[in-house]
Amino acid sequence: MITENNQAKQTRENAVLENVVIRFVGDSGDGMQLTGTQFSDTSAMFGNDVATFPNYPSEIRAPQGSLYGVSGFQVHIGSVNITSPGDSVDVLVAMNPAALKTNIDALKAGQMCIVDTDEFNKKNFEKAHYDTNPLEDGSLENYKLIQVSMTSLTREALSGMGLDNKAVVRSKNMFALGMVYFIFNRSMDHTIEFFERKFKSKPELVEANIKVLKAGYYYAETMEIISTTYQIAPAKMQPGTYRIINGNTATAWGLLAAAHNSGLELFLGSYPITPATDILHELTKHINFGIKTFQAEDEIAGITSSIGASFAGSLAITTTSGPGLALKGEAIGLAMMMELPLVIIDVQRGGPSTGLPTKTEQSDLMQALYGRNGESPVIVIAASTPENSFDYAYEACKLALEHMTPVILLTDGYIANGSAPWKIKKTSELPSITPRIAKTGTTYNPYDRDEKTLARVLAIPGTPGMEHRIGGLEKDKKTGNISYAPENHEYMVNIRAEKVKRVQDHIPAIHSEFQEEGDLLVVGWGGTYGSLSAAVSQINIEGYKVGHMHLNHINPLPKNVAETMKKFKKIVVCELNKGQMANVLRMNFPEFQYLQYNKVQGLPFTTFELTERFKQLI
Amino acid sequence: METKYTFKDFQTDQEVRWCPGCDDYVVLRAVQKALPEMGRNKEDFAFISGIGCSSRFPYYVETYGMHTIHGRATAVATGVKLANPKLSVWVATGDGDAMAIGGNHFIHLLRRNIDIKIILFNNEIYGLTKGQFSPTSLIGQKTKSSPYGNTQPPFNPGELAIGSSARFFARIGGNVPKEQTDLFIEADKFKGTALIEVLQNCVIFNDGCYTQYTDKEVKDDKQIYLQHGKPMIFGKERNKGLVLKGLKLEVVTIGENGVTEADILIHDAKESDPTLHLMLARLHYPLATGIIRSVEEPTFEEREDALYNKVKETSKYKTVDDLFFAGETYEVK
Fold first, then answer.
1. CATH code at B20?
2. Is B223 within the bounds of a domain?
3. Is B229 contained in some domain?
4. Strands A240-246 and A419-423
5. Phi and psi, residue B235, nearest 5°
6. Looking at beta carbons, which residues of chain B come within 8 Å of A270?
7. Pairing of strands B248-253, B240-245
8. Is B105's CB within 8 Å of A297's CB?
């Protein structure tokens, strides 16, 4: 099949690009996640800035070739600062008709679409609901279509190795990766080393994958249809040691760092739920550090076991997603009432109810702030990028331990599964954490408070002379004994709220990026940072005066929010929900008018839709 | 055993607020008498409860305690024990708390075999909410939420527990402090989850629910107090006994129809096969009390600890910094 064409080699152009978006799509069993991860890791190690976005179905193995079984992985790489995985795509690799059909609209006109023609047959057209062959009916005229018989070429490359058909077909993703590596002048070394490590005990699989990878690479090199290859220079990034990290791993590691720096044992009580489960997986791998992970019988036991561990002196964590947060509500109220440190991590997904488990949304904000009975404020913070999930997980622990209160950390499916370069932090570079643990030999009243923070002190069971009882009933402000006294209840409600309010003194001020004053202030929070930042950056380049204020601290809000907003003519709050943060701001700062831009499609914002809207609003 | 405490050391300054005549007072005193006998320091106990009359218990025991939310005491206690295995962790719970709203945590604690002691105050009624039927109320029982008679068949706590792999199950009347104290001490010695069901009379909403078994007049004839290694004999005259007939336990009279003491079953609480224990737990005449089952197996925390030591030995990472900098990192200059 391979036709030598030396002519092509000699006349091929080599163009320099600032950034490029590549999307790999195929069946959920085609290995698209692996392919995408390999490409992004290789690019990061080359020195590019990267951002990734996996998009996979909730079915584990949907029927082959079906539209709903399509799994994708998008990689955005650049020699410039990359904040989002990008919206429209420069190179689409589609392994079958269903993948092509569901993704072709994202490909920019005139750009490259690589398909495995072996999968373009009558059976697959039917499954993808194509009446005609899209490769022949002219519907792809506007794209640079590259047709490759990947399956047959893979089979040819592996002939004589004695592998079964399944193993052969499974390696075809490496053929596609090999081609893309050639097109973008990437070295295959990282992926070769990866296979050598991964299949150490199965040398035939190492050999097969490397063979197919190289076959794809050389096929692209010798084939005349690839007329241009591309260079993307390393990005200017702060010097240091980096690694590619996704949000869930970064969250787990932030917790590990906090346990280390607080000197406490980490306890995680958790129940599996998409997309939060990877935090449980990650922490369970590292029990060697003396951390304890407990997969409970349900969400409620996940949090209540953590409350028990917190009482017993551990750094206590529970992880979940929206439906699980609903189940944990009563227990959060208990921890809040007993004033025990506890970190609740909600990796948000599309709701309501079971909603869209594998898709992203920001619709748990109100639930995090108010989803409990009684007057029960807790600290709420949100991570905004895969890599800063580390910092906010760490800060959640610090605030919980130092202010003796539950802290809800919101992330979402988009940043939890997305990945980006992380400049690795040493635990010694992080702020100190001082848990409030009673010293032996002092008189202990469970509800004595620090004058400034109003945080109480914890006496850990096992400490002689400090035996005490706490509970969910209202307690006397001094002794902690049960009290139904009316004035005492009001006092306690107020002081618990004031304690959370005073956290304002311990969080950084907010600022507007790009512009400190101007025509429009884009307000966002949590996982939309990358998309909003990319859009605001672009619109400023086009000459507009637009600022971007992004909230990570939600309860309490930073002190200078109003001051920051005041300097703009208009404010638009952009959220992947129906306006929950907009309403929080309305409630806190009713003197401003808030415009809204909301999207609830289970997908992140695109730069295009944002910039278009901003222009309309100005 | 030498002891440095008396029951008074385990009394708090809180006024006990149960109804006059409630069996909860008996259990509280029995616990306060048992604790000094366990050879532990006062600060090394933790009493955890959920919601219900009996869940006020921790406020009255002078050690560490937590009064949590409805049904979750067993799950909270799980966290306390896993975080600090040195503590002696006790749960005070009721039939509604443990087997209705907290049923899931209850069965899973028993399954996991964490070294926690559960005192189940079973009064076959919801007391704190003023008299609704509970998961142990009888068919036909008239309560505020079943004015024409309860139509929900009850759980038998022993049966539920043994079905959930309970390794230790004991049952005792609410009005026998001495036996209760003995059982609590035995439960403390047992390594693993121990469940003690107390047949607790609710004087207000379900008065007399156990009279047919626990009244002083009938107690010896209607209950069999089981002791490991001893024949299953009961009755005022000590002439009744249990034998196995086919797949059923049967009451026989020693000296009648040629039955001798040698024919009577010997109670083996340590038999790992639960079949006979389950039959004893289900028995209504006589009602089995005492330790019905006591089979030690590795606890969950022992298994976890063994795993930790194994993983630690082979781990590449000494500190979390090692982990952060391991694997696929790259330098930007």
1. 3.40.50.970
2. no
3. no
4. antiparallel
5. 100, 145
6. none
7. antiparallel
8. yes
